[in-house]
Amino acid sequence: MKKNSFQTIRQAEIFAKSNIRKGSFEWLQAGAEDNLTRDKNLYDLKIAKILPKHLTGLKKLDFSSNIFGKKIKSPLILSPMGHQSQFHKNGEIETAKAFNNMQRISFFSTQGRMSLKDIRKRNKNAYLGWEIFPFGHTNWIKNEIKNAEKLKCLSICLCIDANVRSHRYQDREIDYDARKFGTRTNPTPPNPKLALNYDWSLVTWIKKNTKLPLVIKGIMTKKDAQEAIKRKVDAIWVSNHGGRMFNSGISSLEALREVSNLKSKTTKIFVDGGVRKGSDIIKYLCAGADLVGIGRPAMYGLILDGAAGVRRVFEILESELSTAMINGGFKNLKHMQKSRIKK
Ligand SMILES: Cc1cc2nc3c(=O)[nH]c(=O)nc-3n(C[C@H](O)[C@H](O)[C@H](O)COP(=O)(O)O)c2cc1C
């Protein structure tokens, strides 16, 4: 079977493993320490149950929505991921091609290998979000914000859950250092140690310094969600970084259940972690998310067939989402309600 003919995400995962150097694959898969948080994301999605509704006169399916003033075609988005030139020589530039003219949202980050300018140059019509790690003085952060505004990003995102590199046994035990592989055009952030100096006043400061919608990524508790909402952020992103930063944490589904009541017209909720099937997307939407991100699956696609592979991953998941919506009796995103999901 040809490597780019994958039919499911689990098949893409298997194919990707044999089409990339071992270290890069282990680094992509790895979670903090021995992967407990990563695996909990998958497990909690797996055991959650969806309640179907039948004979609902479901004539036409619609999973479009409005986010930050834009009509988007799908609730499925690309989560930000760093160091993508390990998986394809053009890294993030190639990944972004999968979103050009697609009316779907993709996030890229200051940890990426390709600069936002280069990503934008080749992808004029992609809905891009730019994620900033607080790895420098506020002057540097301000420059990143202004650059994202100039390059017509849809939003700014602040990553709050990755202060230092974590110990990931899966790549550490084979002595793999991702930083040594792949090219870059994006300069490395000036001073990662500064992340430890910041507190919630940084969010207030960023909010004052941009007109773009602000998303805070890495929210896992009600307390942090309240801190973010108090500062009038436009979205909270429930995420444990795919379990990569902190072991023995709770899953994204557990966290989403904690914070979903805080959703309002002015504060959207994004979530990611463990999505590998269409029904996973329904579960997150029913539990209260407006948008659902994927990380690793998109990189399997990138490894296997560049932008076409990333697009295929999205097509597969959206096709499974459509089918699951039809068979479950969900006409649109408004039908995704808490009463339709059980533990
Ligand atoms: C290789 C890799 C690099 C990542 N880099 C970032 C990053 O730069 N910023 C960030 O907020 N999250 C990063 N993440 C976490 C993702 O944004 C996302 O939260 C996670 O991958 C979702 O889980 P999933 O991989 O199970 O879909 C990274 C994840 C992976 C797998």
* Basic shape: globular
Proportion of residues in helical segments? 25-40%
Beta-strand residue percentage: 5-15%
Q: Per CATH, what is the topology?
A: TIM Barrel
Secondary-structure-based class equals alpha/beta
Instruction: Give the count of structural domains.
Output: 1
Q: Looking at this structure, what is the CATH superfamily? A: Aldolase class I
Mean pLDDT over the full residue set: 97
Number of helices: 12
Low-confidence stretches: none
Let me know the number of strands.
12
Main beta-sheet strand count, sense and barrel state: 8 strands, parallel
What is the rounded Rg? Answer: 19 Å
Which small-molecule species are bound to the chains here?
A: flavin mononucleotide
CATH class: Alpha Beta
Write up what this structure looks like.
- This protein has 343 residues and is of the alpha/beta class.
- It has a single domain, classed as Alpha-Beta Barrel (TIM Barrel), CATH 3.20.20.70.
- It has helices at residues 9-17, 22-29, 36-47, 91-97, 116-122, 138-150, 169-172, 201-208, 222-230, 252-259, 278-286, 296-328, and strands spanning 49-50, 65-67, 70-72, 76-78, 105-109, 127-132, 155-159, 214-219, 235-238, 268-272, 291-294, 341-342.
- Strands 4-11-10-9-8-7-6-5 form an eight-stranded parallel beta sheet. Strands 1-12 form a two-stranded antiparallel ribbon. The protein has a two-stranded antiparallel sheet with strand order 2-3.
- β6 (127-132), α6 (138-150) and β7 form a beta-alpha-beta unit.
- α1 packs antiparallel against α12 (296-328), α4 packs parallel to α5 and α4 runs parallel beside α12.
- The radius of gyration is 19 Å and the shape is globular.
- It starts with 8 loop residues before the first helix and ends with a strand.
- Flavin mononucleotide (FMN) binds at residues 28, 41, 79-82, 109, 111, 131, 159, 217, 239, 241-242, 244, 272-275, 294-296.
- Residues 28, 41, 79-82, 109, 111, 131, 159, 217, 239, 241-242, 244, 272-275, 294-296 line the site of flavin mononucleotide (FMN).
